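[Structure tokenization] protein backbone as discrete codes
[Encoding] learned vocabulary of local backbone shapes
[Protein] chain in single-letter code, fold in tokens
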Amino acid sequence: MTRAARTLLAVGALSALLAGCTSAPTAPLPTVASVELARYTGAWYEVASLPNRFQKQCVADTQARYRQTGADIEVVNRCRTADGKVDDITGVAKVVPDSGNAKLRVSFFRPFYGDYWVLALGTGPDYGWVLVGEPTRQFGWVLSRTPTIAQADLETALARAETLGYARSAFKRTPQTQPLP
């Protein structure tokens, strides 16, 4: 067998192997029916999340602030890094039409946008807590209006994440040691 034939055979075998490794499509990810943006905007503290590459510098005190600016929402994310400094980034969120404001597209590096879907909400005038995710289930956050969250609320959020196909044990607590001003 010639070298070219062996290479072609190897590529074909590898392609067949990789095709067999593809996973079945995940079930659609349902969001809450609607979000009142006036109640949602303001400060949120990250109390748990799925670790991800774009927040790897954050070791504590992660928070987000949302402010309506016309049809868009300004997003300011801040956190404390290992050396005690504050890292921040400002982006923009746009509501996905016909989503009841439960689906947003967020960008910190235009023109690239990512999904930000509200999967569960607490009660009260400012919702109290929220579970946020996206369709692939690779990213997820539990946010609270206060630096700490009631254990029952955290359990409710994580139980909902699990019913939606997230690995509950993959969520890691986010320390809130010195909330940022």
Observations:
- The first helix runs from residue 3 to 21.
- The chain has one domain: 37-173.
- The radius of gyration is 20 Å.
